[in-house]
Amino acid sequence: MTIALYPGSFDPITNGHIDIATRASRLFDKIVIGIFSTPDKRITFSIEERVDLATRAVAHIANIEVKSYTGITVDFARQIKAQVMVRGLRMSADYEREFEMAMLNRKLYPELELVCFMASQEYQFLSSSLMKEVASLGGDINSLVPKHVAEALKNKGVSK
Fold first, then answer.
1. In the annotation, is 148 catalytic?
2. Which domains does the chain show, CATH number per domain?
3. 41 belongs to the catalytic site
């Protein structure tokens, strides 16, 4: 069984994230969306809220599981026995960052392979932080996130 880890802060999960997870679920036996509990950035949703939002977003995909983790991502990958790490690439800056992380991860966990998915064209621009900015300014985010995520942003006072 091939287990793939798709790590990130997912604050909150977007349709771009779901697209990557869905595509990965067709290639690997099991996908674990690993939500990093303490990212080094300001977050909107607690770890419990992020896990809940992501779990609801992928509930229709049988081979995807959502878990939170702390510490080094490759240690979590080793803990869940992942052989693959899934990442999404939107632009060249993503490639450079992912390349750096891949080289470090290869040193820390040589058995872990990196598989990058190019973002689908409709999500090339999408990031959680940009989407939250649009929401805070009253923009329509309904095509960018699942309905329950848009409602959660509104309840947090992020969306008008």
1. no
2. 3-122 (3.40.50.620)
3. yes
